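Dear colleague,

As promised, here are the two records you asked about, laid out in our usual form so they can be pasted straight into your sheet.

NAME FIELD: protein one
SEQUENCE, THEN STRUCTURE:
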Amino acid sequence: MSLGFYFDQSRCTGCRVCQIACKDRQGLEVAGPIPRRVTTFESGTFPNARLYHLSVGCNHCDSPACVANCPTGAMYQDESGVVLHDDEVCIGCRTCVNSCPYGAPQYVEDQNLIVKCDSCKALRDGDLNPVCVDACMMRALDFGEVDDLVAKYGTDLVSELPALGTAETNPNIRIKAKEPASETSFKEVVL
């Protein structure tokens, strides 16, 4: 069983409500760490330039580099495969930050602490959704068993995009990608 996120890029408007809900839930009132990030990209050239958004938290990979490289075991996978972080065991070395190809673990300097998406484990334990899923007005996000997400949303989903990058970590994210997101020539834009 692998748990992960589904993201429908065709529905995302880039509003960043998922990002704000995640920061709020984690009590991150400082600038810097953003466990769920919405990034906007541009591809093509005039008159065929197009924008698309990418909403990414932790991909809860099957073979997470952050877990493999954590020297203390602070970064670990629970029995469901979700990647979690134990603040009590963390020494703030940032090896997980440097290991993750997706930028999921992030360092909060004033607390000497790592933060990351935990898929709202405490909420899920109470049979609730992650806050990003419920906050999304466009219903572009979902979370669950990856096989169930594929059965629900289709087999044309991808787990890698040029803007997301590729890694040998087997990310548990499934994306209904917009056509411009498959282009290898793109640049990040700030709206």
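NAME FIELD: protein two
SEQUENCE, THEN STRUCTURE:
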Amino acid sequence: MVPNKTADELAKMSPEQLDELPYGVIELSADGTILSYNAGEAEISGRKRERVIGRNFFTEVAPCTDVREFHGRFLDLIEHR
């Protein structure tokens, strides 16, 4: 089993290291813009990273997540970090 990484550990990893992880990682800006998208997430989602980087995750890429239970929680985390 691969141990989970903390957000701080992920932030210190290079794009190449993130691509080696066996799970998806998406880095978002505070406004929900996708900053990075690793190979694992591209494989899981079937979306190429060049088609999602720079787009808003909640409104353009995964609009099903634009609900209080998900997007709202993200906004709460951003506000209280």
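A couple of things worth noting about protein two: The longest helix spans residues 68-79. Strands lie at 26-28, 34-37.

Best,
R.
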